[in-house]
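Each letter names a residue; structure tokens follow underneath. Both lines appear below:
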Amino acid sequence: MRPLVFDGVGTVSVYQSDGTLKYLDDKISKVSLQLQLDWQKVMGGESGYAFHYTAQDLADKASIEIPRFSTILAELSQGAETERGSVKFDETETGVLDPTNGYTVKAPTKYGGTFVAATDKVFLIDAETGELVPLTRAASAPTAVQYMITAAGKVTSDAANNGKVIVITYSWTKDDSTKSKLSGKRRPKPFKLVHRFELVDDVSGNPVPCQLTIWKALGGGTLDVSQERKKPTTNTMTLEIMEPDVSAENPDGIAVELIFGI
């Protein structure tokens, strides 16, 4: 077989131990396979030489780079638990107290959520120093050092505060949302990874079907969930290649398999 240039990325499929398809992505940035066999120099021995070489345990690794975040990636790489249902958000907003309408929080309406009563704290921003001056919640008729808030999150205060800038912190909930829960003792479960891709034969120009199969991998490494302005987040999941069990699908107990249709 002629040497091939790896210049394309294809589809990644992840299967659970029972064969269930766990994850599928056809827009990955990079797949890397590092097959590593190291030798250790051991001094002495019966050979009469000053030292001899002993093979260390295999340290094969693979990684996939994906320019998105997914709860499935958190499960595979970090052993996270995905939970769906109602979630609570902690919000901070800055607004101006309108003389007629006061100020109404925006996030619950924007995202289709519900304002959580009694979670609010309101501060006036001092126009000269920028200091946050806390106001006290009142049930009715607030004074200049108080505010009143409705169940919908509408803030009003004394007329002396009309036109002033406020900061309000509060919580709101949203149903049918998703949460990734990562415990301090988390451990990912092993899975099978299949990478199907296509290369081009430089001589003939014809496509060459290729496949990388890792029969038993364990997720690890760093899952990056950082946010940077005007720069997409790229997540790199490191895979530890394990020794698989012998099965009908893999009778030879192969750890990694590379297939080229040429």
In short: The mean pLDDT is 89. The two ends are 7 Å apart (CA to CA). The CA atoms of residues 126 and 214 lie 61 Å apart.
